[in-house]
Design goal:
The protein has a single domain (about 30-50, about 60-495), classed as Glycosyltransferase (Alpha/alpha barrel). Helices cover about 45% and strands about 5% of the residues. It contains 18 helices and eight strands. The chain has helices at about 5-20, 30-40, 95-110, 120-135, 150-155, 180-200, 200-220, 225-230, 245-260, 260-270, 285-295, 305-320, 345-365, 380-395, 415-420, 435-440, 470-475, 480-495, and strands at about 65-70, 95, 145-150, 170-175, 330, 335, 370, 375. The strands form three sheets. A four-stranded mixed beta sheet has the order 1-4-3-2. Strands 5-6 form a two-stranded antiparallel sheet. This is Endoglucanase. It comes from Lupinus luteus (European yellow lupine).
Length: about 500
């Protein structure tokens, strides 16, 4: 047997392993969609509404904004910073990943909202819970509040958000202590949400868009990283490793989509050269998302050749299993894998982008050329995305759903304070900082089911230890779920 024949057999075998997860398997994508959105109610901070469905969670952090770090924020008044989301299994409000999650939730509605059915309203509520908060954090001229809570002290405790007795210091960036990445990401979230609410709540949409423009101007005029301004307050938790240039272009792209103004078109065209990590998309790196988004924004580039479309194709080739320029790994069970913790964030983000780009390619009636005679059709992109979603939902070597509450077998000991500790309903007395340690160390399942939460996922060998201590694999995050909402909405309507 010749080398070429052996290579063909290897490639075909790998493809069958990677895409076979979707063959003959039927998942209830509508049920998974409903649960993926419900998860955000479990992450809510502040005064919970009467419509709250995850009712083991109660009001928390009702004094946020009353304690302010005055080393960067000179004013003496208090600011109402109640609301927003806890990003993961802790009780800090990190506005950088929160804003990214909000932007992607809004994008999911823009692309696939018609496929959400009755869950569209719940998704709009999830977006609005964040944007109401972002209007608060940007309400003081010349400042943007970027975080509430002290990470080191918070992570030293294992307590319910309803019980928090640690300092809730609020941190802001300003012209003298800039934070372009987090400010621009908040601007992107507000702009994307303004598009979503334009039909449903036009006055609110107008307010969001106006604030988005103001915050973007602030982020662009006073350039600098919040990692430098705030140091160990945000690092290494959500330190900006990729620089702020991508967030500025990302925000401008969303403002262009929302306003169609030439100013933002010119800004994108003049600054897209700073966007170089074509194969990555997540809370820290927006590059691939920028190009996929801009392929669908008309008249963004004056030339007949669109570098955005070419770069979006390069993203596809960076994640396609059979591509000669692939930059990610795949487990034997077929899961996309990048080094580092919380791998499912990469899986869901890539799957969402593949589906958005596949829809555009289908309209253009074209395929992606990855070289070496490898062409990816829109169908192939959807096939790859579905294999990843199905893996999450349980079609994997462990037959384990990585979404809590979906399927017969799912993680029971997730790294999540509120879920692991008894609710106020069952334990009305306060559980202080260190008193929760016994629950953390227990081998019992979590007390409360955080339905819809998707954990960090298995390792490269498809192994998963259901352990709270193994936070890199057992902790859920908003930025894992946000792109998954869009992907599940797509498959809720398009089964193939």
């Amino acid at each position: 047997m010749g080398f070429i024949q052996r290579l063909v057999i290897i490639v075909i075998g790998s493809l069958l392993c990677l895409i076979g997860t979707s063959i003959g398997l039927k998942h209830n994508y509508g049920d998974a969609l409903k649960k993926s959105i419900l998860f955000f109610e479990g992450q809510r901070s502040g005064k919970l509404p009467q419509t709250q469905r995850m009712n083991w969670r109660k009001d928390s952090a009702l004094q946020d904004g009353s304690q302010i770090d005055h080393t960067l924020f000179s004013a003496s008044q208090q600011v109402d910073l109640v609301g927003g989301y806890y990003d993961a299994g802790d009780n800090v409000k990190f506005n950088f990943p929160m804003a990214f999650s909000t932007t992607v939730l809004a994008w999911s509605v823009i692309e696939f909202g018609k496929s959400m059915g009755p869950d569209l309203k719940n998704t709009l509520d999830a977006i609005g819970w964040a944007t109401d908060y972002f209007l608060k954090v940007t309400s003081v001229p010349g400042f943007v509040f970027v975080q509430v809570g002290e990470p080191y002290k918070d992570h030293n405790c294992w307590e319910r958000p309803e019980d928090m007795d640690q300092p809730r210091i609020s941190y802001a960036v300003s012209k003298d202590h800039p934070g372009s990445e987090v400010s621009a990401e908040i601007a992107a979230a507000l702009a994307a949400a303004s598009i979503v609410f334009r039909k449903h709540h036009p006055d609110y949409s107008t307010r969001l868009l106006q604030r988005a423009r103001e915050v973007f101007d602030f982020a662009d005029k006073y350039r600098g990283s919040y990692s430098d301004s705030l140091g160990s307050t945000v690092c290494p938790f959500y330190c900006d490793f990729g620089g702020y240039q991508d967030e500025l272009v990302w925000a401008a792209a969303w403002l262009l989509k929302a306003t169609k103004l030439h100013y933002y078109r010119d800004y994108v065209n003049n600054n897209i050269v700073n966007v170089k990590n074509i194969g990555e998309f997540g809370w820290d790196t927006k590059d691939a998302g920028i190009n996929v988004l801009l392929t669908k924004v008309r008249h963004v580039n004056n030339s007949s050749y669109s570098p955005f479309l070419a770069n979006a194709d390069r993203f596809v080739c960076a994640v396609l299993p059979e591509s000669p320029s692939r930059s990610v790994q795949y487990s034997k069970g077929g899961l996309l894998f990048r080094p580092g913790g919380s791998n499912m964030q990469h899986v869901t983000a890539a799957s969402f982008l593949l589906l958005v780009h596949s829809s555009h390619l289908r309209k253009l009636k074209r395929k992606v050329d990855c070289g070496s005679n490898i062409f990816a059709s829109p169908k192939r992109l959807r096939q790859l995305a579905r294999s990843q979603v199905d893996y999450i939902l349980g079609h994997n070597p462990l037959n384990l759903s990585y979404m809590v509450g979906y399927g017969p077998k799912f993680p029971l000991r997730i790294h999540h304070r509120a879920s692991s500790l008894p609710s106020l309903v069952n334990h009305p007395g306060q559980i202080h900082c260190k008193e929760g340690s016994t629950y953390f160390e227990s081998q019992n399942p979590n007390s409360n089911l955080l339905v819809g939460a998707v954990v960090g996922g298995p390792d490269i060998n498809d192994s998963y230890e259901d352990s709270r201590a193994d936070f890199a694999h057992s902790e859920p995050t908003t930025y894992i779920n946000a792109p998954l909402v869009g992907a599940l909405a797509f498959f809720n309507r398009h089964r193939h």
